């Protein structure tokens, strides 16, 4: 194992895991009765994805999942977080389940449980069935209702072995990268409709949580339900009043739009300052906050880097024509720190700050799972097929240390999932950016553990040994 220093000691029952997502690794987009998703459409749109790449094959996990579970087993993780492709279960997003799709996830869950690995299932990691997008997508409430139907299908089928469910992964990306910035599927630039998307994603979370728990109760099973948010640690570029006000708007765009309805039962009080007339509330109904505010058994937090915020002119002068992401801010570059190949600044202390601030702002905060954390690196230091990814090891080690510091400060963090098990399709960046602790040769699909894989494996073993348990 490369000597990049030890990981911090975390609580004895701390859960170590690894994470992936369906469209990024599965491939087999036209097999097993799967229908098209918005990411199939978007990735085949000229100019949408770097080098015109797509997820048609990806890592071919659909056929190679036993090999990938074997990698997880050797890694020694206690849990594997993966997402289900909605169009594998309901090709058009409605109606009866596709038996072949359910059978695939049945086999995957069986393989995991036979290996002593807990399956942690994410219902939605952005691959909306295209047929639902054609009918209005997340802009319309009907999609939230269809999502609840889909959740019930999965709970009834997999709930005897899956007890931990995540409704959504990073709804910010689905709502704002996809419908305001236009850099994710479906690739539109909208104002009020993007805010409607955000709201309906939250409503769908609440409806799905009810279905997951109802299924568990009917079958005499356990079910823990959470949601994963990519929360931002936002810092003002200067101490000016304008920059501090810009941070307040950015907090609502990135964090409070989700956290306040979920945890406080109310909408952010500065929506008008953030979005102006775009936040007209036309997409809301009486009772929505009650639906959204279903109790969370845990909160998933994805974190990669902090963001610096400065006050700036709006991109679009006409308020009525602005997109939902045009809130009068800019993001100056962090200077004096290393940046990953995503050009994201590496500031591990910001992770501690985020978690401690979250704990302070939201009394009664549920336990936290770090559901994604990792780094994209060049991975050019190689001996044969072995990748000596010392920067990635340092990143993971330092962010685990940041988690440990938050735990010392009283934050209830229960686990950490590294992103990602495999190099994979990195959305609009295609296959250029590599986050995996396992290298994937995209020509042969050969998997080769990197030095970070071996370091993480040893970290898990050392943690178990320090607490007198087994890994």
UniProtKB/TrEMBL annotation:
Xref: Pfam families: Glyco_hydro_1
InterPro entries referenced in this protein's UniProt entry, alphabetically: GH, GH_1_N_CS, Glyco_hydro_1, Glyco_hydro_1_beta-glucosidase
A biological process term (GO) from this entry: cellulose catabolic process
UniProt GO cellular component terms: cytosol
Catalytic activity: Hydrolysis of terminal, non-reducing beta-D-glucosyl residues with release of beta-D-glucose
Enzyme Commission no: 3.2.1.21
Active site: 170, 372
Alphabetic keyword roster: Carbohydrate metabolism, Cellulose degradation, Glycosidase, Hydrolase, Polysaccharide degradation
Enzyme class: hydrolase
NCBIfam families given in the database record: BGL (TIGR03356)
Protein name, entry field: Beta-glucosidase
Organism, scientific name: Streptomonospora nanhaiensis
């Amino acid at each position: 194992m490369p000597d990049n220093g030890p990981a911090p000691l975390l609580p004895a029952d701390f859960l170590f895991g690894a994470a992936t997502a369906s469209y990024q690794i599965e491939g087999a987009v036209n097999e097993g009765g799967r229908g098209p998703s918005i990411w199939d459409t978007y990735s085949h749109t000229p100019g949408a994805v770097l080098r015109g790449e797509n997820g048609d094959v990806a890592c071919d996990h659909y056929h190679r999942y036993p090999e990938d579970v074997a990698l997880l087993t050797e890694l020694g993780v206690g849990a594997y977080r993966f997402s289900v492709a909605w169009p594998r279960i309901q090709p058009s997003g409605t109606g009866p389940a596709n038996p072949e799709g359910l059978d695939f996830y049945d086999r995957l869950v069986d393989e995991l449980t036979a290996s002593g690995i807990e399956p942690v299932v994410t219902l939605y990691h952005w691959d909306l069935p295209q047929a639902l997008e054609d009918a209005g997508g997340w802009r319309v409430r009907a999609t939230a209702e269809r999502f609840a139907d889909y959740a019930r299908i999965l709970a009834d089928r997999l709930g005897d072995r899956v007890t931990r469910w995540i409704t959504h992964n990073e709804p910010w990306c689905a709502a704002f990268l996809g419908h305001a910035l236009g850099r994710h599927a479906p690739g539109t630039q909208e104002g009020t409709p993007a805010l409607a998307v955000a709201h309906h994603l939250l409503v769908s979370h609440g409806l799905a949580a009810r279905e997951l728990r109802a299924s568990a109760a009917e079958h005499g099973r356990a079910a823990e339900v959470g949601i994963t948010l990519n929360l931002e640690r936002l810092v003002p570029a200067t101490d000016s009043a304008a920059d501090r006000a810009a941070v307040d708007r950015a907090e609502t765009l990135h964090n409070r739009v989700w956290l306040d309805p979920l945890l406080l039962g109310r909408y952010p009080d500065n929506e008008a300052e953030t979005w102006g007339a775009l936040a007209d509330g036309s997409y809301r109904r009486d009772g929505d906050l009650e639906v959204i505010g279903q109790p969370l058994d845990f909160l998933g937090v994805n974190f990669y880097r902090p963001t610096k915020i400065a006050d700036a002119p709006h991109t679009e002068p006409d308020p009525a024509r602005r997109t939902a992401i045009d809130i009068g801010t800019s993001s100056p570059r962090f200077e004096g720190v290393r940046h990953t190949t995503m050009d994201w600044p590496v500031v591990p202390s910001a992770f501690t700050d985020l978690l401690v601030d979250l704990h302070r702002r939201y009394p009664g905060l549920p336990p936290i799972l770090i559901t994604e954390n990792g780094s994209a690196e060049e991975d050019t230091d190689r001996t044969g097929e072995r990748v000596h990814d010392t920067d990635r090891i340092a990143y993971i080690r330092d962010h685990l240390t940041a988690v440990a510091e938050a735990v010392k400060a009283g934050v209830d963090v229960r686990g950490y999932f590294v992103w990602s098990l495999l190099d994979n399709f990195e959305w609009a960046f295609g296959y250029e950016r590599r986050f995996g602790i396992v290298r994937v040769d995209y020509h042969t699909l050969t998997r080769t553990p990197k030095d970070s894989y071996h370091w993480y494996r040893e970290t898990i073993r050392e943690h178990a040994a320090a607490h007198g348990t087994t890994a």
